[in-house]
Amino acid sequence: MAKIKIAQNPTFTAVVQVPRIGAEPAPVEFQFRYMDRLALSAMFDRWNKARDAWAEKAQKEGATWEEVTTGEIALQAEQLGEIVTGWDLEDEFSAEAIVDLVRTCTGAPKAVIDAYQAAYSPARLGN
What is the pTM of this model? Predict the structure, then answer.
């Protein structure tokens, strides 16, 4: 039986089925930042608070669709920036490229986050 170390690698890869308008989803390899359970739960708490605060502000101030969309893009780009460290796309990985991905591919943020979460799934790990 192979020996493994308890500490996880700082990054891991997973294939994300990136949705494409008018085409089949494209499989793209993403490199993700590993987080332990406490860091992961703290990140999800931050994401939930940020989402709820933005939704409350948008509702209270009667935001336009464009303002809501702009806020959603910023929030999703920030989220992906926390977990993605690289990708196998023609476009070079950068903070600006993350924003471009989120702005032009509405289903990408969910697909990326779902793939990230699936990597942590106990069923996937065989537990």
Answer: 0.88
